[in-house]
Amino acid sequence: MATSATDLPGYTGEIGKFDIPFKDESASHYQKPRRWSPAERGLIDDHFNKLLDADIIGKAPKYCDNTCNVVVAMKKALDGKEAALPVI
Q1: SS3 readout for 4-64
Q2: What is d(CA 75, CA 56) in angstroms, rounded to the nearest whole number?
Q3: pTM of the model
Q4: Could you read off the pLDDT tens digit of each residue along the chain, which spans 88 residues?
Q5: 16 forms bridges with which residues in the sheet?
Q6: Cα separation of 39 and 72, whole Å?
Q7: How far is it, in rounded angstroms, from Cα 1 to Cα 9?
Q8: Rounded-to-integer distance, Cα 60 and Cα 67, Å
Q9: Residue 31 contacts by C-beta under 8 Å, 6 or more apart in sequence?
Q10: Which domain of life is it from (predicted)?
């Protein structure tokens, strides 16, 4: 069982070029940044820093035309009650 993003097995060869096709390549998809609480912001930063460190994701250019906000959801505890901290 993986305990961190760096423990995840994956393809280790050359990645090569890839493209994500959009229905309308001339249109951009941009969402205004959401406002998160300091606790949520900390969880988001920790999660994405782990993915960046494991080379699973990379940073987008500063003025990227296509963006999508992160969804932070509350995770239920084993007893069915709401957990204290949200998860990504």
Answers
A1: CHHHCCCCCCCCCCCCCCCCCCCCCECCCCCCCCHHHHHHHHHHHHHHHHCCCCCCCCCCC
A2: 24
A3: 0.59
A4: 667 766 766 666 676 676 777 777 677 777 888 898 898 899 899 988 988 888 878 888 777 777 788 888 877 777 777 665 555 5
A5: none
A6: 11
A7: 11
A8: 9
A9: 67, 68, 69
A10: Eukaryota
